[in-house]
Amino acid sequence: MGKVYPDAAAALAGVLRDGMVIHSGGFGLCGIPALLIEAIRESGVKDLTVVSNNAGIDDAGLGLLLKTRQIRKMISSYVGENAEFARQFLAGELEIEFNPQGTLAERIRAGGAGIPAFFTKTGVGTEVAKGKETREFDGETYVMERGIFADLAIVHAHTGDTEGNLAYRKTARNFNPMMATAAKITVAQVEHLVQPGDIDPDHIHTPGIFIKRMIACPVGYEKRIEQRTTRKRTAPAAAGAESLA
To answer: Any residues with CB less than 8 A from the CB of 87 and at least 6 apart, and which?
Structure first.
């Protein structure tokens, strides 16, 4: 069978299991693999550890898995937009491993590069460094952080060919490329599925060797906007109102 599957449930068949570690790409609702998240919800798997910059919002993205109590632990950076996340955390119902955002990105990248651990100055002397090894380099103290390698990575791309080569669009790239490299199996959902050779090789962000399965988003796939911010419309200047002075 090729890499392209008919839908998200088929692409995740035989992959999901209770207690697994999942990388989930995206930032808020930008670049999230929403169809794959929904398929995970429908599968009923539980006790998941999910690595994601944040947990989306209450009624979309990873918020759906929080609502069904399928997530046991989150490894995240920013979690301020999800009320259910906060409720579960404060009630002691959800385990959280907080990370500085750059540290989280590097932990994932390191996992994909086969680097088990690295040292960083970020978090030294704070709660982030509590219980972790520290070491001095050139007179400065650094804290050791472990790389993260998941059982499954789910990512979203703008364009992908049938060989699994992916191209992301603008800020929707975010955590997707590094997560795609850092799991035993990576499943991608793509907005535009094309043939090999249709993507300029210089524009490929994730080589197909990292992608084991993929699906094409259906026509009319909705990409939700977390917070829409626009300027107030101003009235146009009246014709001939310019000063002649």
So the answer is: none
SS3 (DSSP) at 190 = strand
- The backbone region for 125, taken as left when phi is positive above 0, alpha when psi lies in -120 to 50, beta otherwise, is left
Tell me the sheet residues that pair with 213. 187
Per-residue pLDDT 10s for the chain (245 aa) are 599 999 999 999 999 999 999 999 999 899 999 999 999 999 999 999 999 998 888 889 999 999 999 999 999 998 877 899 999 999 999 999 999 999 999 999 999 999 999 999 999 999 999 999 999 999 999 999 999 999 999 999 999 999 999 999 999 999 999 999 999 999 999 999 999 999 999 999 999 999 999 999 998 888 877 777 788 888 877 665 555 54
- CA distances (Å), 126 to each of 76, 100, 104, 239, in order? 17, 11, 16, 60
The 3-state DSSP class for residue 35 equals: helix
Which residue has 């060989």 as its token pair? Answer: 163
Cα end-to-end span (Å), the chain: 76
Contact 33, 155 (CB under 8 A): yes
The whole-angstrom separation of Cα 176 and Cα 173 is: 6
Q: Which two tokens stand for residue 210?
A: 């990292």
Q: How many residues does the chain have?
A: 245
The third-level CATH classification (topology) of the domain covering 8-111+148-216 is Glutaconate Coenzyme A-transferase (3.40.1080)
Report CA-CA distances (Å) from 130 to 9, 89, 135, 144, 202: 40, 19, 13, 11, 42
Q: What is the pTM of this model?
A: 0.90
Q: Give ∠ CA 158-159-162 in degrees, rounded to 5.
A: 145
Q: What DSSP character marks residue 216?
A: E
